[in-house]
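Quick note —
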Amino acid sequence: MKLNLRMTGKAIGSAAKAKASKIVSDQLLKYVANIRKVKVHIDEVPSKFHGTLTQCSIEVLLPGLPSISVKAKGKNLVQAISRAVSNSETVLTQKLC
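Predicted structure written out below.
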């Protein structure tokens, strides 16, 4: 499983990249045989009530099946990534079982 992580607006530090990679790989570990590539895109989006939120878009490329795209927002990078990975895990379970 390849992991492609990118962020627009500002640079990601090596510690944040390592933490994001660990979150994604740990939660999608049981589907690693069915996943070709995971693309993670992080954005800062404005919000009316909360100032600026972090939005995480995850695209999971599956061999022989349509890809899965999921978006989630959070107060920080870790919360947004964990929400998006959890949602993509739910969709993967539905598609593969």
